[in-house]
Amino acid sequence: MARPQTEGEYLATLRTAPVSGLSRRSLLLGTMSLGSMALVGCGGNGSGNGTGAGEVTYGNNQADEVPLKAIQANVDAFQQKHPDIKIKMNTVAHTTFQENINNYLQGSPDDVFAWFAGYRARFFADKGLVSDISDVFAATEGIPASLKNACSTADGRQVVMPATYYPWVVQYRKSVWEKRGYEVPKTLDELKALGAEMEKDGLVPFAMADKDGWEAMGLFDILNMRLNGYPFHIELMSGKQDWSQKKVQDVFDLWRGLLPLHQPDALGRSWQEAARSLQKGTTGMYYLGTFMAQQFPAGKEQEDLDFFVFPEIDSTIGAGAIEAPTDGFMLSRRPKNEKGAKTFLSYMGSAEAQMTNVQADPSAIAVNEKADTTKYTSLQKRMLEVMKGATDVAQFLDRDSRPDFASTVMGPALQGFLKNPNDVASMLSKVESQRKSIFAS
Fold first, then answer.
1. CA–CA distance from 347 to each of 116, 142, 327, 339 (Å)?
2. pLDDT tens digit string along 107-132?
3. Cross-referenced Pfam families, in alphabetical order (predicted)?
4. pTM to 2 decimals?
5. What's the burial of 202, exposed, middle or buried (CB within 10 Å: 0-12/13-18/19+)?
6. DSSP secondary-structure letter at 246?
């Protein structure tokens, strides 16, 4: 197998033209020249002999050590089963990949690329930038019926092969809590009381980061779902609700009251750095996806992790709604090796491939219902328990909404709130103005 390209080499292939000064504020602003196209069928011509033999390029957005190891294990296992199909994996850092996705898909993308289920997948499908994989999806056993909608276009065609998902929860170290005698809070008042107790013990209650402009989105999402309910949250993400209304202002007022319990200066801290504070025992909790476990060595360190769903705020709404982003794979609009790419997609949707993945990276669980959960770690079994108990599952702000709105409007808006939490009305007024403009297009 050819070596993975370096980030610098691969970035050159992500652009159709030089893009200078790109940041989260400018990502996805470009107008899609292919916007009028319908979702295309699989238009590649495969390899010469029609079997799919040859090279399949794969755009991988997992550059950190643990998830990269997991995806490499998948690729290696696939190669053993299909020695005639060579996977060329092109790896780019997660945030960099997301910030260049428009240029990437409109240029010369890989045959298969990693992406997310939900609105963000449908958005690119509606622009004609990816292929229909309904045939592969239907032939893949074990995919939960509950995930079909998240992997489909509005008119019912599947465009995502789902692989793994992970809940966003409040994570903590069991040894630290047992030593201090802390108990899992069931309500917001109990959470605040726990935070005050941690402060007395010399701990910062919550780790916090928002250096890359997406981490805080998760906290907004859960506060909104706990305060206003899942249906309202989804309507808000879909551009169907006014961002300046009192319901949204109430979310930020609640958040402002919780900020003293969080690490200060979040904009200068990566999620990995925040996770290390929990690992070192200087913070008591961290609301993040369970991928946080990637920062803890496998074995004793990971076994020391536990979590709980964010507690109830309104008893009439409860705490059943959670976020569990689903990661998967998509087929580009004109794959160079369609048959080989489809064979690879089919394998990645299988229970076998997903077990290979989650055994290498125990911070996620397989979506395939035929996966052997007896091989799960205690942390993964807890994730599965939480997923089974969820009443509603959101995908995350930057997946449940338009990518141009989530990344260019909400990312900077939430960072602005963290800098100045006392000017919510003005901030939401600007967000609402941009919502009207973006969702009208």
1. 17, 12, 15, 13
2. 999 999 999 998 889 889 999 999 99
3. SBP_bac_1
4. 0.77
5. exposed
6. H
